């Protein structure tokens, strides 16, 4: 048995962990995966050479490289049964509920930042749903769902980005900065809760590493929308909201691209 440690510099979100798990789930040589998201590292316990695993991970465009390969007598056991399924359902429901809330309040408050962030929550929901389908499902079914989800997400991101450009050019009413901040704070709490649940499930410790919070892409996005709300009020301008919206739409499109890569097997 070998233990290969990979450095994955763009693995900064729990949903990206699920993408990696699904990418490697059909490798007979892979026995176990041990994620260290705060340090962007992945330990893979496997037989054979690590090159095919590296090639598979590179297709996700997460900037992956091999740090070391060594012989190992032990394998980290990860719960992949009912406990893992229950966890995935929990974070899926949390993300999907906040997708609906942010989309609703984003439309009512005229905030593209909230609308974009809601699509980011939807993107995470899609990844967790794919992970659930992948457990016990056929490869063809998983790939078909991933392909549909990826294209759907790209279409939403393009529509959102076009709307941002339209608002930059035209005259639009100011977004409600108070709604932006309140809803984003609630979404931030929801993301931290998801991170806590995911990290706790893989650790004997009852607390989550603090660095996990600060390295999460979702939490950074939430913080960006909160900052945009403050700037909207301070500058009396809608530009901060449009800028953060445009950035998040690009992030959503990038996530969709990774899902499409996953669908190619």
Can you offer a commentary on this structure?
There is one protein chain. By secondary structure, the chain is α+β, with helices and mostly antiparallel strands. Residues 203-215 have low confidence and may be disordered. It has helices at 14-24, 51-58, 82-108, 112-134, 139-169, 177-201, 210-214, 217-235, 239-263, and strands spanning 2-8, 30-36, 41-46, 64-71. The protein is elongated. The chain contains nine helices and four strands.
Which terms summarize this structure?
11% strand, single chain, 265 residues, 4-stranded antiparallel beta sheet, Alpha-Beta Plaits, 9 helices, alpha+beta, elongated
Secondary structure elements and their pairing?
Blueprint (H helix, E strand, L loop, with lengths): L1 E7 L5 H11 L5 E7 L4 E6 L4 H8 L5 E8 L10 H27 L3 H23 L4 H31 L7 H25 L8 H5 L2 H19 L3 H25 L2
Antiparallel strand pairs: 1-3, 1-4, 2-3
Shape: elongated
Percent range of helical residues: 55-70%
Uncertain spans = 203-215
Q: What is the C-alpha radius of gyration, as a whole number of Å? A: 19 Å
Which band does the percent of strand residues land in?
Answer: 5-15%
- Say how many strands there are: 4
Average pLDDT works out at 82
Please, how many helices?
9
Largest sheet: 4 strands, antiparallel
Compute the separation of the termini in Å: 25 Å
Structural class, from helix and strand content? alpha+beta
Q: Main sheet: which strands, in order across?
A: 2-3-1-4
In short:
By secondary structure, the protein is an alpha+beta fold. 66% of the residues lie in helices and 11% in strands.
